[in-house]
C-alpha cells in the first residue's frame, strides 16, 4: 500500500465491485478521470472480486453489499484475509444497522450510500487510502450507538429483535440447510422449525426464505 500525500506519488490502484453494470460503468468513469486513482479491475460477484483482487493487488476496493451469491460482507472479510494491506470502502443502497455493523466487523474502512456525489466518493477514497475512516454523519451516529450497545453487555448479535433460537435457525438457513436438516440438527420437530421460520420472516419483514437468507448473509451469518 502506497501512502499518498499528493505530489508525484503513483495513483492508487482501485478495484470496483458491483453487480449493476450501469452503476459500475459510471463509477469507473468518475474514479478513473481523477489522476490520483487508476481503476485496475471490476467485478460483479464476490468470486470475481476475490479473483480480481488476487490478480490486480489493489490498494482500494469499492464494495457493494448486495452481491449475488457470496455477500459483500463475506467477500470483504475474505479479501482482507488474503490482502490485509487493501482498504475497503463499502458503497451500497442499504441503510440497515446490521449491514453497517457487519461491514465494519468484516474490516471495511468506510460506508457510503449510493446517492453520494462524485466529490464525496473521491474524498472518501482519499481518506480511506490515507488510513482514515469515512461514514456519513447519520451513519457515524448510528455506528457509535451500535458500538455503545456492544460495550454495555455481551457482544451484540446480528438481528437483536430475534430470539437466540431464531437467530440460530436463521444462521443454519443461511448455511443452506433445509427445514428438515435444521430440525435434525437441533433435535426438534419439523413443525417447530417452521413456526420459528414464520416468526423470523415476520420480524425481518421478508416475504420468503430466499430473502431471509440474503439478509442473513449480508449481516455475516451463514459462513460456518
TrEMBL record:
One of its GO terms (biological process) is phosphorelay signal transduction system. InterPro entries: CheY-like_superfamily (IPR011006), NreC/VraR/RcsB-like_REC (IPR058245), Sig_transdc_resp-reg_C-effctor (IPR016032), Sig_transdc_resp-reg_receiver (IPR001789), Tscrpt_reg_LuxR_C (IPR000792), WalR-like (IPR039420). Residues 155-220 form the HTH luxR-type domain. Residues 13-129 form the Response regulatory domain. Keywords: DNA-binding, Phosphoprotein, Transcription, Transcription regulation. CDD domains: LuxR_C_like, REC_NarL-like. The modification 4-aspartylphosphate is found at residue 64. PROSITE patterns: HTH_LUXR_1 (PS00622), HTH_LUXR_2 (PS50043), RESPONSE_REGULATORY (PS50110). The keyword Transmembrane does not apply. One of its GO terms (molecular function) is DNA binding. This is Two component transcriptional regulator, LuxR family. The lineage of its organism: Bacteria, Bacillati, Actinomycetota, Actinomycetes, Streptosporangiales.
Amino acid at each position: 500500500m502506497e501512502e499518498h500525500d499528493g505530489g508525484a506519488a503513483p495513483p492508487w490502484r482501485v478495484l470496483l465491485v458491483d453487480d449493476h453494470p450501469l452503476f459500475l460503468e459510471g463509477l469507473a468513469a468518475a474514479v478513473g478521470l481523477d489522476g490520483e486513482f487508476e481503476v485496475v479491475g471490476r467485478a460483479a460477484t464476490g468470486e470475481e472480486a476475490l479473483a480480481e483482487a488476487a490478480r490486480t493487488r489493489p490498494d482500494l476496493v469499492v464494495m457493494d453489499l448486495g452481491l449475488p451469491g457470496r455477500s459483500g460482507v463475506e467477500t470483504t472479510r475474505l479479501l482482507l484475509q488474503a490482502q490485509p494491506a487493501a482498504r475497503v470502502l463499502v458503497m451500497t443502497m442499504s441503510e440497515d444497522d446490521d449491514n453497517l455493523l457487519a461491514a465494519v466487523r468484516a474490516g471495511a474502512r468506510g460506508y457510503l450510500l449510493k446517492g453520494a456525489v462524485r466529490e464525496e466518493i473521491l474524498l472518501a477514497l482519499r481518506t480511506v487510502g490515507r488510513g482514515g475512516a469515512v461514514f456519513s454523519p447519520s451513519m457515524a451516529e448510528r455506528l457509535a450507538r451500535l458500538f455503545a450497545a456492544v460495550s454495555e453487555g455481551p457482544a451484540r448479535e446480528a438481528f437483536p429483535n430475534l430470539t437466540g433460537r431464531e437467530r440460530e435457525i436463521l444462521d443454519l438457513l443461511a448455511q443452506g440447510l433445509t427445514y428438515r436438516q435444521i430440525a435434525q440438527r437441533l433435535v426438534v420437530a419439523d413443525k417447530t422449525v417452521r413456526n420459528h421460520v414464520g416468526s423470523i420472516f415476520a420480524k425481518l419483514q421478508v416475504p420468503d426464505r430466499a430473502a431471509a437468507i440474503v439478509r442473513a448473509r449480508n449481516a455475516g451469518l451463514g459462513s460456518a
